[in-house]
Specification:
The chain is of the alpha+beta class and 303 residues long. The protein contains 9 helices and 14 strands. The strands form 3 sheets. Strands 8-14-13-12-11-10-9 form a 7-stranded antiparallel beta sheet. Strands 1-4-3-2 form a 4-stranded mixed beta sheet, with helices on one face. The chain is elongated.
Amino acid sequence: MAPITPCLWFDRNAEEAVDFYLSVFPNSRITQVARYPESDHPAHEGRRGEVLMISFELDGRPFTALNGGPYFKFTEAVSFQIDCKTQDELDRYWDLLSEGGDPEAQQCGWLKDKFGLSWQLVPTSMPQLMGSDDERGARVMKALCPMKKLDIAALELAAGLTAVTNERFVSASPAEVFDAIRDPERLARWWGPDGFTNSFHVFDFKPGGDWKHDMTGPDGTVYPNESRFLEIVPNEKVVIEHIATVHHFLLTITLTETPEGTRIDWYQDFDTPEERAKVLAYVPRCNEENFDRLETELGHSTN
């Protein structure tokens, strides 16, 4: 199937617009530039040699910018949607794209950039937030409608979500990943965010077995942890109940074999939406750091 390429109509500032969009989106480039030829068409008078069309890519997706003249303007009936995994990502795109745009055009995640082009910034979790539950969808919609830039945490709280989810694809087999979990010496090397160390006191790796250890932060603060293994399926799944007094949650680690290695799903379920909201500022980031440390450990074991 041939790709569908959006063509954006500008007056004479397509080059400026393309340069701006390339500065906003990663993995972007100009692929071709065409200039006005000699033409006796009235709309082309005096434009010989000027830029006519620019073929470019934004994050690998094809676009065309056309210097077509002052005849047509952008309308809100067409917008480009950017799916954002995190609030930081959404904030970044919002700040860059809205600068110089019409603040009156900002509503429910939509904005206009300084060229009048409309963009919609939405969390990747929006289908889950709205879901098939009419009551949940109504709560989310009520929270969303007064917003200009979307607040992901507020929408997730309105949806009643209790879980934080992360995933990572690693170039190691499920058996290799499982071994890095079940071996206490290896687990102690990678468990926790950047800069944390572990001292294990009890590690009874079996269903119903206890796991007690201290995590020491970069500043020397010691965080006692007490957990229990609820379910263990070798090379497939580990379910852990974290029963320390600060936060109670169930952590389900699922390993799925892929052609390149393993997909790790990290599902951290808290007791209430309010408890989840308290940790959103740091838990997703810390989980990603945990994945990074695991990949380092896997690299040491497989090289």
